[in-house]
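Loading example: each entry is read as two labelled lines plus one structure line.
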Amino acid sequence: MQPNLTHLRQLEAESIHIIREVAASFERPVMLYSIGKDSSVLLHLARKAFYPAPPPFPLMHVDTTWKFREMIEFRDRMAAEYGFDLIVHINQDGVERGIGPFTHGSSLHTDVMKTESLKQALNKYKFDAAFGGARRDEEKARAKERVFSFRTETHRWDPKNQRPELWDIYNARINKGESIRAFPISNWTELDIWQYIYLEQIPIVPLYYSAKRPVVERDGMLIMVDDDRMPLNPGEKPEMKSVRFRTLGCYPLTGAVESEAATLPDIIQEMLLTRSSERQGRMIDHDQAGSMEKKKQEGYF
Amino acid sequence: MAHQSDLIAEDILGYLKSQEEKSLLRFITCGSVDDGKSTLIGRLLWDSKLIFEDQLAALESDSRKVGTQGGEIDFALLLDGLQAEREQGITIDVAYRFFSTDKRKFIVADTPGHEQYTRNMATGASTADVAVILIDARKGILTQTRRHSFITSLLGIKHVVLAVNKMDLIDYDRTKFDEIVAAYQEFAAQLNYSSITAIPLSALRGDNMIEASANTPWYSGPTLLAHLETVQVEQDAINKPFRLPVQWVNRPNLDFRGFSGTISSGRVKPGDEIVVTASGQTSKVKDIVTFDGNLEEAIAGQAITLTLEDEIDISRGDVLAPVEAKPDFADQFEARIIWMHEDHLLPGRPYIIKMGAQVTNAQISDLKYKVNVNTLEHVAGKTLELNEVGIANISTDKALAFDPYDDNRHSGRFIIIDRFTNATVGAGMVNHSLRRATNIKWQEMDINKQARAYQKGQKSVILWFTGLSGAGKSTVANLVEKKLHALGKHTYTLDGDNVRHGLNKDLGFTDADRVENIRRVGETAKLFVDAGVITLVSFISPFRSERQLARSLVGKDEFIEVFIDTPLEVCEQRDVKGLYKKARAGEIANFTGISSPYERPENAEIVVNTSDQSAEEAAEAIVAKLEEFGVLGAWYPEI
C-alpha cells in the first residue's frame, strides 16, 4: 500500500495551497512578519510555495519600537539572506505621543503601536490580503477563525457573521476597501511548529534558546531588561538567569521562562514535559476575560 | 499513554524520530446540545495531555462559576470559544480542536447540534474523514441523529462512529445499547457509509474513552480513542485518476514555466502523458519541481509544480489529467446543494460558482426537489432556504472540469457565492453532468449579428428602462422608439405588462417568478439583439441582481441601462393605473416601492428624471446619448 503523507507533510501542503490561493486571488497581498517562530515557518512555506521564483509579495513588519533587539537583528539578517522585499512600519503618531508599555500600560500600547499601526500600514499600502501566522490552537477565540477571514473597510472582524468555509475552496471575493486576513498555518499546533522547525532546520531568533540574560521579576513574570528604557522600581536589580522565551513580542510585555534548553530537541522536550500554555507569557491576554476576542474584533491578529 | 513520557524524558531524539511518521485524521463530532459532545472532546484533549496548567486553573475557576457539574471539572468549558456563547452554554459555530497521540494527530471539527445551524455541520463535515455521531443512551435515535447522519453522508463521509453516550445513566444496559445500534443500522442502510462502529460510552466518567471499561464487560470492541487511532480512512484519493487543478502559473524567467497546484487525486511521474481538460492539448510531464528537489513521483495531497515537455497554453483554473482518464467537462450538471444563507436561493438568478481554482458565473436552472433533512423525503419547492438541501440542475457560463463527487470526493465540489454581497451562500456536490450540454451546439450562422446590424446602419443594443411603476418608462420608451423609427432605425419594444399577457402569463409576483420573468425577457431581448435590432425593454426590474442578469446575457457594449429616476411621491401622485392606492390599501402584495424594495441602479448608462423634465425632453436626451455611444451610426463589422 502506498504510504500516506505524514501529518507534517499534509499540513505543509495545505499551507502551500492556501498561500498560492491568496497570491492568485488578490491584487496586493502582503505577508505580516512578526519575527517569531510561527512567522519563520510561514516565510519558509512561502518560499516553498513559489520555488524557484521568490514569493510574489512583500513582507511587512509592524514595529512597535519595543521589540527585543535580537528580533530586529534577526529580521534584518533574514531579509538580507533571503533577499525578500521588507516593509517596516512604525506608527509615527504613537512615537510622537511617546506611547510605550511602561508609561501607558500594555493595553494602550498594544492598541496604538500594534493594532492601530497595522491598520495604518494596510491603508497606506492598500493591501487587500494579509497573511498572518495565527494558529487555531493558540486561544479559544481563534479556534473558530476562518482560513480566509473577512475584514470590513475599517478592518473589523465579525465573529457572528463569518463566511462558511468548505473543503479547500476559499471565497476570495471582496469589495474595494475590504480585505482578507489569511491564516495558512491555522491547523498547526505549537508542537507541529517546533517539529517542523527541527525537521526543516528553519532559522529562529536566538531568544528562543536558553542563555544567561538580565531579568527582573514583576507580577510573577520574568521581564528581560533589554535596554535602558526600562525603569527599575526601588529595590529591583536585574539578575542574570538562564532563561528563554516561548513566545516573542514587545520585551516589556513578554515573560521569560527559566530554562536550560539550548537546542531545538531540548526546547521540544521541555515543551512536552512542562504544563503551561505558550500564551501565558503574554500580558495582553490577561488584561480581561475574553480579551483576545475583543482585540480580534478591533483588528488585532 | 498518549505521549510516551518516558521516551520524551530519556531520549528526545528517538521520540522526535518516532513522531515523524505520524499520520493525520480529521473527524467531526455531531450531537445535540445535551448529548455530551463538548465533554467528549474535552476529555480527549484532557487525556492526550494537551491541557496546560494555566488552562486547567482557568477551567477549575470557570467550572465553579458557570459549570454544570456541581463544581467538578466541566470539560465542556474547554471548548466554547466565544464569550457570549459561553454565557448561553451553547456552541454556535464550527470550532477546530487539535490533539495527538503517538500514532496520529487529530483535527476535530466541533459543530453545533441544534436545528438552525445545519450549514456549520456541512462545513465541518467537508474536510472530515470520520464522523462521530453522539447519541444520548437514554433518548436513543432522535430527529437530529438522522439529520446529522444524512448531512455527513451527503458530504461523502464513509466512516461513522456511533458513540452511545451516558451509558452510566442507563446502568450500562446492554439490551438498550443493542436496540439503539440495531435501529441505527436499519436507518443508515439508505446512506452511503462503508463502516459503522458502535461504542458504549460515558464521556463524563471515561468509560471506553481511552481504556476499556469494567462497566461494560459485554463489549469487546475498541475504545473510542483506539478506534480513531486505527480506522483506515480512504486511501482512495491516491488510487483515483490523476487530477491537478492548476492554481498558479510559476514563471520566474523565460526559461521556466511551471504549473503549481495540489494534486487532488491520483499520482504523477515524469514522462506521464497529460491533457489539459478544457483545450484538449496534450504534453508529457518533464519534472516535478519542489523546493526540496525534483520528485520521482508525487501523490494526492502534495502541493507541487509541474513542468511540461511542450509549450502549451495553461492557466489558473485548468485541470491537468491523464489522457486516458479525463474528467467530465460540461456547462450543465446536476448537483446536490446545501443552502447557507438567509437570502433564499432563486433559480435563474446569477451566482458565482467556485470549483477548485475554476470560477464562473452560473445559474440554478431548475430546482428538481428539496430533501427534508430529518426524514429524507423529497419535497417539491421553488427555492431553497437557509439550511435546506436540494437537488438542482446548474448551468454555467463556461464549462467546468469535474468528476461526480461520489466517484471522487476531491473533485466535483463547489461553493456558491452571491455576486453582489460576495457572501458564500451555498455549497454543492456534482451528481453528474447533463449530456445535453455537449449535444446541443450553438448554431453558428453565416449571417451574424454584426452583418444584420450593419445592413440597418445601426448597432444592435438593449435599451433597458428601469424605474418605479408610474415613473414614465413606457411613455419615454414609446417616444424614443418613435424618434428612432423616424431616423430610419429598426427597433422593437418589449413592454413589461404586454409580455406578462403572453410569454410570461404563467408567472406570478413572488421573488422566484420575478427572476424567471426577467430571465425570459432578457433572453428574448438577446435574440432581438442578435437579429440586429435596437431593442427597448420597459420593465420595473427592481432588483440590481436581475438587471445584472439581463446585462450579463449580451456583450459589454450591448446593454444600456436607462434609469427613469422619478421620485416615489411623484409616481404615487400620478398613479396612472390606480395601483399605488390598491397597494397602500394592502390589496396588492409585493408592490415595488411600497411593500417590496426598489434597488436604485448605481451605474446606469443614462439617467433621466421625469419630474423636472418632460417625457419629450427625456426622450431627446436619450437619443442624443445613443448618438454619442455610436449606436445610431453605421457600424462596421470587425471581420
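The longest strand of chain B covers residues 358-371.
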